[in-house]
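Quick illustration, no need to memorize.
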Amino acid sequence: MTGVEICVEGAQGVAAARAAGADRVELCAALDVGGLTPSAGLMRLAMEAGIAARALIRPRAGLFRYEADEAALIERDIAVAREFGLEGVVFGAASADGRLDRDLMRRWVDRAGPHGKTLHRVFDLTPDPFEALETAIEAGFDRILTSGQARSALEGAPRLARLVDAAAGRIVIIAAGGITPDNVAAVVRETRVGEVHASCRAPVREDEADPPFGFGRQPAPINAHRLKALVDAVSAADRADN
C-alpha cells in the first residue's frame, strides 16, 4: 500500500490530515519559503492527536550548506523532536560542491537515534541523485523526499522510477512536488514509489490586502476536501494494481 504524508504548518492541518486518513504528517512552519522548523507547541499537538509525525528541522530559508553554529542548532532541534516522542525528523545538508554533506548528516542521524530519518529535498539539488541515494542509505536515513529532480513528481516520474529500482527496498522513496488528487494515481502507477507527499493547501487569494507593518499574509489553510480526495485516489490506485 502506498503511504500518504501531508505537510502541515498548524493545528488545522493536523486535524484535517487525521480526519482524512493520512498515514503521516510532516510538521513545519513557513511553507511559503519551503518550510522551517515547527514550534514545540505544534510538535506536542501532533503527538497528542495520535498521528504519526515527523518534524522538519531547518533553521532558516535558503540553501542547505550550514555553518557550525547552524549545525549545532539543528542538532538541538532534533533533540527537542525526540523529547516530544515524534516518529521522526526530516533534515539534510549539502557540501560546497553540492553533494550531500556525509559527515554532518551522520552526526545528525546519530543524534536522532532510533527515530525515523527522512532526507529532505536537498536531494533534488545534488549533481548525481544515484550517488546521493547511496550516501543517504549509508548515513542511516529510512526515507528520501524527492521530485526526481524535476519541477514536479509527475515530470520527474521516469527518474523516480529509476530511483525506486536503485533503492531496491533499502530505503523508501517519497514522491513530492505538485502532487494533487488528479495526478497522484499516475505518479504512483509510473513510479511505484512507497509513499507520496503533498500539502493540499487552498489557493492564495490575490485580492486580499497585505496586513499592516509587513507582517505578511496568513498561511493558506489545507483544503480538507482535496486532502480527502487525494487519500481516496491513492487507495483507488492501490486497489487497481492488486
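The mean pLDDT is 94.
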